[in-house]
Amino acid sequence: MLDQKTIDIIKSTVPVLEKHGEAITTRFYQLMFSNHPELLNIFNHANQKQSRQQRSLAGAVYAAAKNIDNLEAILPVVKQIGHKHRSLGIKPEQYPIVGKHLLLAIKDVLGEAANDEIIDAWGKAYGEIANAFINVEAEMYDKASSQQGGWDGFRHFVVDRKVKESEVITSFYLKPEDGKEISSFLPGQYISIKLEIEGEEYTHIRQYSLSDAPGKDYYRISIKREAGTSNPDGMVSNYLHLKVKEGDTLKVSAPAGDFVLDTNRNTPVVLISGGVGLTPMVSMLKTVVDVQPERKVTFIHAAANGNVHALKEEIQALSDLENVNSYVFYDSPTEEDRNNNRFDVEGYVTRDWLEKNVSLENVDFYFCGPVPFMKAINRSLKDLGVKGEQIHFEFFGPMDSLEETDQKEPVTI
């Protein structure tokens, strides 16, 4: 429990964190990886290079400081990050390393402004914040390993099937090498894949949404191959697409994630996706069809064209059901797309289209895709009066903000 003086000092640093937060977290990662390069086996190198991890951590530190006298207020964020940590294999003994280098970074960036009193207060505050994460994650580790078919750490799975879904997306059907049962999951969750790539100094861990309904004897992930191999994401996705074959073995962590379909509700649901963001949406759609056949569901997917549109036959087959409506948006359709009526709307998912074609009252919206796409969808829904509790979304990667954008139209991939 923090004393009032410590709380007051931490709260007094909130404006400073708002201004210098990203500089502090950038310096933090530089210092930590310099002193503990082994942690590069865990962290996503691409997110580091794109500064997404730095921005995400800065936001989390700012939120923690702002709510230091009521950490329960940020419990949803703690749980969201906790899912990521459990999936990656973050352990309690790594938190002191993080705390040490966070304090060093604060001192390094702020200089004399970060006096001993402020550093001492932040040391105490970090201890409280770390304990919140450790306690939440301990429960997650226990649940992942103790549930039926569950396990701890990374388990070996065999690539049972590898199916090309489009020019850029391939599905991998994964079955446990030991032939034993696998844990179920909630629609919208993801698994982590741990790779040791020849010639690479560090391992690479990537998280991929499960793209099929729960209850199968396999996990399916559908992965987009990023252009080029000069960045870590391109290197990893190209490796999976081009090097991993049926029969190969991959290291997989148990399903995780809090972006999940609420099957306790019977309200109509609208699922909106852009590009490979359709993967958790497909899992949600199939789950509604399987376990809530009376629940109305609208599936909206945006892609460039039919060449990059994955899993379209699966969605089309479900669209014939009485409780399912689906719409396909292509912003750059090919002549073949036009001749074969492969899409419903040419262009983007706009505010006006949503207002005219989708019921907005007492409806739950779930969406996923590129960040500009999600920003535009989020803005459109809020402009149309959709309440915050009806809006649910997932970032592929570190958390970001959807509140501000100069984008006039959703961007698809």
Describe this structure in words.
It is a single chain. The protein is α/β, with parallel strands linked by helices and 413 residues long. It folds into 3 domains: 4-146, Orthogonal Bundle (Globin-like), CATH 1.10.490; 154-253, Translation factors (Elongation Factor Tu (Ef-tu), domain 3, Beta Barrel), CATH 2.40.30; 269-394, 3-Layer(aba) Sandwich (Rossmann fold). 41% of the residues lie in helices and 18% in strands. It has 13 helices and 12 strands. The protein has helices at residues 4-12, 14-35, 45-49, 52-66, 75-88, 95-110, 116-146, 232-242, 278-291, 312-318, 335-339, 351-357, 371-383; strands spanning 154-164, 169-176, 190-195, 204-209, 219-224, 249-253, 269-274, 297-303, 324-330, 345-346, 364-368, 391-394. It has a 6-stranded antiparallel beta sheet, covered by helices on one side. It has a 6-stranded parallel beta sheet with strand order 10-9-8-7-11-12, with helices on both faces. β11 (364-368), α13 and β12 form a beta-alpha-beta unit. α6 (95-110) packs antiparallel against α7. The longest helix is centred in the first third of the chain and has 31 residues, at 116-146. 36% of the residues are buried. Heme b binds at residue 85. Its cofactor is FAD; heme b. Belongs to the globin family. Two-domain flavohemoproteins subfamily.
